[in-house]
Specification:
The radius of gyration is 16 Å and the shape is globular. The chain is an alpha/beta fold. The model is unreliable at 1-15 and 17-41 (pLDDT under 50). The chain has a seven-stranded mixed sheet. It has helices at residues 2-13, 39-42, 44-47, 78-93, 109-118, 165-172; strands at residues 50-51, 57-58, 67-73, 99-105, 125-128, 142-146, 152-157. The protein has one domain: Glutaredoxin (3-Layer(aba) Sandwich), CATH 3.40.30.10. The N and C termini lie far apart (41 Å). Helices cover 31% and strands 19% of the residues.
């Protein structure tokens, strides 16, 4: 039984535990695109339960007509934190282009708030209420992009330089 628990823990932490945790400027063709009309895109977005840092529910349907950049992270995850400056720069670049950026952790609101108070990021941090495995998230950071119609169009596992020109072009394209 211990071996199984250790294996599961290893798999969950594999992304954050890598020695080379520098976000990469992955070429657009290397970004994982979620296949249309599959279980991952049909119900996944509807299953995401978020609350703001005052514990008010966030309904992703309220962002209909906008592209939602949803990054899953944790306060203890070094690659997650290392990619935040590039997420913030991408948010600033795309501010006029109908994007919403949300960074969701499954940690307590108190812990997220303490992190936000220590860090100097101008990002919207929220709490994820849905367990990561229920969303098919087994490694963090993981970023989902949800198109203006509410469909999952991108599922990127691992840190990236989100403000790299080729990545921004891919985010802007209708053909994620």
């Amino acid at each position: 039984m211990r071996v199984v628990i250790y294996c599961i823990a290893f798999l969950l932490l594999a992304s954050c535990g890598s020695r080379d945790s520098t976000p990469s400027a992955t070429a657009p063709e290397e970004i994982e695109v979620a296949p249309p009309n599959t279980a991952t895109s049909d119900n996944l977005v509807d299953n995401i339960q978020l609350v703001d840092l005052e514990n008010n529910p966030i309904d992703l349907n309220n962002y209909h007509g906008k592209t939602v950049f949803l990054n899953f992270w944790a306060t203890w995850c070094k690659p997650c934190i290392q990619e935040m400056p590039s997420i913030e720069r991408a948010q600033n670049i795309l501010v006029e282009e109908n994007f919403v950026f949300l960074l969701a952790s499954d940690e307590s609101i108190d812990r997220i708030t303490r992190f936000q108070g220590v860090q100097d990021f101008q990002l919207t941090f929220v709490k994820l209420k849905t367990p990561f495995p229920d969303l098919g998230v087994y490694s963090i950071p993981t970023t989902l992009v949800i198109d203006p119609q509410g469909k999952l169009t991108l599922n990127q596992v691992g840190a990236m330089e989100w403000d790299a020109p080729e990545v921004l072009d891919k985010l802007r394209s209708d053909n994620l």
